[in-house]
Amino acid sequence: MRRFELVTPGSVDDCLRALKGRGTEVQLLAGGTDLLPQLKNGLIKPATVVDLSGVAELRVLEGDAQRGFRVGAAVTARALERDARIRAIYPALAESAALVGSIQIRNLATIGGNLCNAAPSADMAPPLVALEAEAVVASGGGRRRVPVASFFSGVRRTVLAPDELLVEFVIPAPGPRSGGAYLRHTPRRELDIAVVGVASQVTLTDGVCAKARIALAAVAPTPVRATAAEQALAGQPMTPQTITRAADLAVEAAHPISDQRGSAEFRRHLVRILTRRTLAQALARASG
């Protein structure tokens, strides 16, 4: 591993000062589950590494069912998996966090790292997209909010500028009679990445679907919303027939590739199956 300067800021402002003017010569260290293997294998050779472990603001985890939640970028997957409030209000997010690697990995891996790594198969991205969460991004000029659905610009690329820092995610309250679910398919039960992942979030009013959000992973360069499927459910009773129709429409949003982990045809098949299952599970949770 090549030598580098280690910076240990104590605040967001300190982080921004460390990033200023360094361009791509600097890397941020949160959990390190992606960064450290890349450093050891010589895939990246930064001149400076900024250790975020001393920045308390990045570990905020607060809110409730009425106000929604603030989730700091350095909150670990294990913290989200175990938090009773997250499991109750945002079950899809808790389920996705519980699928990130092993327990040892989840105790280190952070939600911000999972999103900023911007892998098409990132597990925690689809639930955040389906929940219409926003990313709070800080720079020397202030802070801005970016919908998580717009946060990714390509494979392993985000909208973050070199001098910007992801601070937290703001997740809206889902409201009453809402439910969500996340499922993925992997060749192995654990310690694998998604061949396809699907998150669904639905809200019911007077027995019909008032709103549906469906987000897909690993079927395009970035997470995608199945908007045609969402529109087909809006204002309709969620019957097995309407759910099946939505699952068929969700396939239209997928543009998968064929690789050693699965063919494009297999991935489209998985989109249909996982969309149907997550919608059924979200409906059951929304129904109480």
Written account of the structure:
The protein has helices at residues 12-19, 35-40, 77-82, 84-89, 91-97, 103-106, 111-116, 125-130, 227-233, 240-250, 264-286, and strands spanning 5-7, 26-29, 48-51, 61-64, 68-72, 134-139, 142-147, 152-154, 157-158, 165-171, 178-185, 196-205, 208-217, 224-225. With 288 residues, the protein is of the alpha+beta class. It folds into three domains: 5-54, Uridine Diphospho-n-acetylenolpyruvylglucosamine Reductase, domain 2; 56-171, 2-Layer Sandwich (Uridine Diphospho-n-acetylenolpyruvylglucosamine Reductase, domain 3), CATH 3.30.465; 178-286, CO dehydrogenase flavoprotein, C-terminal domain (Enolase-like, domain 1). It has a five-stranded antiparallel beta sheet. It has a four-stranded antiparallel beta sheet with strand order 11-12-13-14. A three-stranded parallel beta sheet has the order 1-3-2, covered by helices on one side. β12 and β13 (208-217) form a beta hairpin. α9 (227-233) runs antiparallel to α10 (240-250) and α10 (240-250) packs antiparallel against α11 (264-286). The protein is globular and about 60 Å long. The model has no long low-confidence stretch (mean pLDDT 96).
